[in-house]
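Hi D.,

Good news: the full-assembly prediction came through. Inputs first.
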Amino acid sequence: MNGKMKMQLKEYFEAPEPEKKQEFMAGLPSQGVSIMDFLLLQAAYIPKWVWGLSALIFALALIGAGYLKKDILWCVSACMPLPALAFVAESGRSEAWGMAELEMSSRFSLRSVLLARLGILGLADLLLFFLLLPLAYMNGDKPLFETGVYMLCPYLLTVFLGLRASRRAQGREAAWLCGAIALGVGLGYILMYQWSLEFYAAGNFPWWAAAFVLLSLGTAKQCAETLKQKEELVWSLG
Amino acid sequence: MNLEEQYDKIYRYCYFKTRSRETAEDITQEAFLRFFENRGYTDRGRALQYLYTVARNLCIDEGRRQRAWALDEESAGVYSDEEMLRRTSLKAALETLDETDRELLLLRYVNELPVHIIAGLYGISRFALRRRLAKAVKDLKYRLGEEDMP
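Then the structure:
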């Protein structure tokens, strides 16, 4: 349809000015916010230590890269469970502090709030990953793709196990459990690297790649189930 | 969603259905109030479809109550003779179309509602909707003398 025809249709369907519009709009309960405003609003509620932790990991990697050279890869990889822990902790923060019911009855549904915060943290972690990747790549002896896979596996494993655990445990118990998982994955990574010189051997890479694919799928499924559980909580309140 | 903009569009749609300013405005406000009562739809990205469904159902209910809607007064005398002639021929061409086709033209080209929402509103496939819209536009152009016989 051309512009002239659209103009003609607009003329035909022209309606007289509504008389009670302004009065009605002024009395509406809320005018809503744009997606960007909503995201910025939610970003402000993410605890400062989460941003501080990411900055600290990046700063340490930047300083450590000069000294550790090849070892920077496993050091950075062993740190990846920490931002993952922040991601998981955010998914259960409302319940850990007994605020879930209150948030569900507020202006935005708990599901939207959680989706926004996890999205922001996910993007922030992705940014951290892309900042750390060149450091690990330039100082290591592995190809770029392999370096990325080695770094993401512990992150995905922590998110996968953490989300799974946080849906089963309750309140503060879930927070401790997620902390223990992150610590366990980080320490496990360090110990495995120290004990086995073949940890990053080229022959083992297909196993790493397979683990990466499985963990990516598993993590996506856990995120979806966590969001679904929050939605169901609303129904169980009634 | 810009509520002010949607208010105007829903009101225009209701006015087309009821031909009464007052009834159209009452229905628009009722649709918005029901929309705010049922916030779940705003979270699932179905806000527009919900609003239009409520407005359409309310217009149908109102139509059943008042079988014959009185047409508002035409704005004769406001336009020049040439403009009046153009508007009259446009009105005559549009009125040869089916009521539903006119409604679809309003929703798609005036209110600029996405195809999937209109298709959902009328319970037809997107393909069927596109075909129907294309036919309505072609018929309209023919009536206005902009196109040869279909």
